[in-house]
Specification:
Layout lengths: L11 E2 L16 E11 L2 H5 L12 E10 L7 E15 L3 E14 L13 H13 L4 H18 L5 E4 L2 E4 L2 H12 L5 H17 L4 H18 L3 H14 L1
Antiparallel strand pairs: 1-5, 2-3, 3-4, 4-5, 6-7
Helix pairs in contact: 2-3, 3-5, 3-6, 4-5, 5-6
Amino acid sequence: MAFDRELWDDRFSVSAVPAFTCPRCGKGTLQFDKKQFWKVEPKFSVDAHGHEDWDPEWVDERFTMFLKCSAEKCGEIVVVSGSASVEQVYDEEYGPSMESLLVPAMMVPAPPIIGVPEKTPREVQSELQLAFQLFWSDLGAAATKIRTSVERLMDHFKVAKFKRTGGKLKPIPLFTRIETFIAKNGKVVHKDHLHALRVVGNLGTHSNAATRSDVLEAFQIYEHALDELIGKKSTVIAKLAKKLKQK
């Protein structure tokens, strides 16, 4: 699974539901069936239609839909819910028009935003799965979970988590743990990657200032880092190249 940023807009139309990857099997894509879609307009929004200045963009609806995995042996079902609003969209062929757009606030179980190597430690994967789910409802919390996942990654590589000071154990900052990991493992190329994830996590934890773009960029960086640190992608490719060269 390669990172595809276009899948992760904050809204989409019923006629263009993204083909998210199945969170269970990771092979099928989530398919939309219009028979499994419900949309309701609350009374306060309906009543507003009578206002003399009413505009279609005042419409405020709620929706629920089910997406089913395309792989027959899997058949996972993902429930999606949120709000819907009428907005002006532009088509190159037909020009501007009004369309109802869905804004998800929840996807359960959440589709994976990035591919995660099979050998990734379960503790790292668990935090990432929470980040995938929180992405739709709380970007700050999602960023925090990315940071926590990096902490678990440092645990996996047995980087010290605490130090004894004045007879007491005190937690070692993630910044220091990353620096220690880089110094011991010689993975200097990943220094900026891991620190970038730490900084985005701090934005989410301390100021809730992480934007959708920040979080998506963090996921993209993390996918690359995991491919190298856990999946050993460059090493695998290098061995294949050497094998072919020998032939």
